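Sample pair:
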Amino acid sequence: QLTSGLEQRAHFDSLTTLMNRESLRDLLGTEIVRCQRSGEGLALVSLDLDGFKEVNDRHGHEAGDAVLREVAVRLGANVRRNDAVGRLGGDEFALIIPHSGSLPELELMLDRVIRGLAEPINFDGAEFTLTASVGVSLYPEDGIDVDHLMRAGDIAMYASKARGGNDYSYYQTAMTVDAELRRKMGRAIKTAISDGEFELRYQPIVSLTDDSVWGAEVLLTWRHEHRTVAADEFLTFAERSGQIRLLGSLAVDLLRHDLPDLSESSWGKRELALHLTSTQLDVRAFADELALLAGSPELDCVVIGVSESVLLPEHARAAELIGRLDGTGMGVSIDDFGSGFTNLRMLRALSPRFTKINRALLDGTDGKEYDTETSIEIGASTVRLGHSLGTKVIFARADTEHDVELARRMGADFAQGEAVAPPMGNSRLISWLDERLAAT
């Protein structure tokens, strides 16, 4: 009996009773040999749950384990009797589908699996709705050995996840190039954090009524190999890879480091606006850390900027945190006001102190600017809406004097952009303000 128990643990996952990674690899090798002899094909299906971390973070590991057990049951119920199901670890699973010569039949099964996993899961009074990102690699087209097939399946699965999940992708050769680029970028960001290549820049924000300096937006920048990496290059990747959470903590740490120099200079307690994503705010550890810091006097000049998407139901924790931060005196700004998901009832409940409209709001769907009067009316309507909610309105990306004049005619309170001042380091920000004050 002892030997039997040890063998069970060696070959099967203790939580779900599915085959473990080693057993699945062994079976895949056996199936490949069989296919070589028979000339048949097979499919390896790699599956990763979307949003599973949220279950563990918000409801604990007991809930997470219950979800994984239910996923195992549903996978087994939606495949054929001769198909194999295994758990690779964490929230990753795999299916071996022999005799998969018919792609339409395979796709019917994949649709069935994805629909089955999307059904709500109930545990201890809570209901969870998860989706799955699925990747498919085929023998012999995508690999003739275990390692190549599993790698191809993983790459295809991540392609599905990058598209938003709840879907499947077949492996394509071009995905290997994309996967290698993602791998290199991920390693470069990790190294950049440890090597101190990230730093903060501050872009001033000025009043459109008296030209006084209201504050500045805090921008995380990356100096890599003698060049500044464009924010769009690394922030979009970091959001998809999950590294955005690390960058959020890093930005807060760097800001705390700069604050003493700023507060003791002519800058004083002017506002500093730091944008954080719903992904960052959804992380329990970071959220708790931020909530604790919010009560400290050193951060009472910080305004947390969020996108309107924080008001969506799936970001309930982020919205809750924003409410907590606002209660501490730390300001809240909606940074893409009028161009995202607008829920006026929730916006009123959130009571942001600031809203930010982007210069892009004034462009048509073809990317061309509306005529001036149309632009002014659209912008003015958005500004009036912001004012009716009790917020001050910042006009962002005012990169020309024409943009500044548009912002002023719309009735915005503040402007930010190249026409006002470029982003700069904290010491240069202090000098810039001193020069500006000396000239008045």
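Residues 267 and 430 are 6 Å apart (CA to CA).
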